[in-house]
Specification:
8 strands, 213 residues, alpha+beta, L-fuculose-1-phosphate Aldolase, eight-stranded mixed β-sheet, 7 helices, globular
Length: 213
């Protein structure tokens, strides 16, 4: 058992409500987690609505194996949240969201070039595409963690998206800019002209050249 001060719980609740307020989830879709310390994570509880999350709806789990330690039953996707924290020590937040335009593309059989605004190469980088796996399954968790080892954004077929960040602001910004890029592609169709290879390379952060494509 572990006790958590009210301050980190309250800050987590504010973050979760911001995700919903920005239109990145609806009702009980999506889940959010935060690295609490070297051994523990906070995660939104199963079937909770991020829009009105409370401190009593936050679960505490082990990073090492996703084991539930305190609070209500954790999100069924806790395994991939914990797995990402194990694989990416620099990551402190994981967001599984389901924004409208991005989810449209996640349900299509094409993989459009999403480098249509400068913020995609500058803040998000290459996007991983994960085939459909049963929600909450070990197979999904394994596939998501493998994708996120070398990416900061993943599309889950017929399911949604996953993104990460060192801070909540970085995580939220990635999700918001990604939704904007997907909306442009959905609305503009074949008329949309993506950035070219040289333009993308010039926008990518220094030291990021070797990341997955």
């Amino acid at each position: 058992m572990i006790d958590v001060d009210e301050q980190p719980l309250s800050a987590f609740v504010v973050a979760a409500r911001r995700v919903a307020g920005d239109g990145l989830v609806r009702c009980s879709s999506g889940n959010l987690s935060q690295r609490l310390d070297g051994e523990h994570l906070l995660v939104s509880a199963s079937q909770t609505w991020l829009a009105d999350l409370t401190s009593e709806q936050v679960s505490i789990c082990h990073i090492a194996d996703g084991e539930h330690l305190a609070g209500p039953p954790a999100s069924i996707e806790t395994r991939f949240h914990a797995g990402i924290f194990r694989a990416r020590p620099e990551v402190n937040w994981v967001l599984h969201f389901q924004s409208p335009a991005a989810t449209v593309l996640a349900c299509c059989d094409t993989r459009p070039d999403l480098n249509v605004i400068i913020e995609v190469p500058a803040y998000i980088g290459p996007v991983a595409w994960v085939p459909y796996r049963q929600p909450g399954s070990a197979e999904l968790a394994e596939a998501v963690v493998a994708a996120m080892e070398t990416h900061d954004m993943a599309m889950l077929a017929n399911h949604g998206q996953v993104t990460v960040g060192a801070t909540f602001a970085e995580t939220l910004q990635r999700a918001a800019f990604f939704e904007l890029a997907c909306e442009i592609v959905c609305r503009g169709g074949d008329a949309v002209i993506p950035l070219d290879t040289e333009q993308i390379a010039a926008l990518r952060p220094k030291g990021d050249e070797d990341r997955a494509v």
